[in-house]
């Protein structure tokens, strides 16, 4: 039987978990839809939960990752900032390296 290592990685700050696969997915969905509410619905979470995750990232990273614009006549919208786009790219690279490490480390495991 072939064994394979698997895992998830997240980044923590003094405030606790700040980045992980789910938060990166949220950022990507906001980028695609231009809406926190739409991104939250797509992920099956409440707007409040999505906003709390965004607020935590905005507060604990070096620069805000999402900027929201309140509604008006045409409704509100949200955008992922250049810092947010960099966070997405860097996290995906980290995640790729992590899984490469797991694949290399798992070679030769026999239980």
Automatic annotation (TrEMBL):
Residues 24-84 form the HTH lysR-type domain. InterPro entries: LysR_HTH_N, Molybdate_resp_trans_reg, WH-like_DNA-bd_sf, WH_DNA-bd_sf. GO terms for molecular function: DNA-binding transcription factor activity. Pfam families: HTH_1. It comes from the Bacteria. This is LysR family transcriptional regulator.
């Amino acid at each position: 039987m072939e064994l394979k290592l698997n895992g998830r990685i997240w980044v923590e700050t003094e405030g606790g978990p700040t980045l992980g696969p789910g938060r990166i997915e949220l950022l990507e969905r906001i980028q695609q839809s231009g809406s926190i509410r739409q991104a939250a619905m797509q992920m099956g979470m409440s707007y409040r939960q999505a906003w709390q995750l965004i607020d935590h990232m905005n507060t604990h990273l070096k620069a805000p990752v999402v900027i929201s614009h309140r509604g008006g006549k045409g409704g509100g919208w949200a955008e992922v900032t250049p810092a947010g786009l960099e966070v997405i790219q860097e996290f995906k690279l980290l995640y790729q390296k992590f899984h490469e490490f797991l694949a290399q480390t798992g070679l030769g495991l026999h239980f």
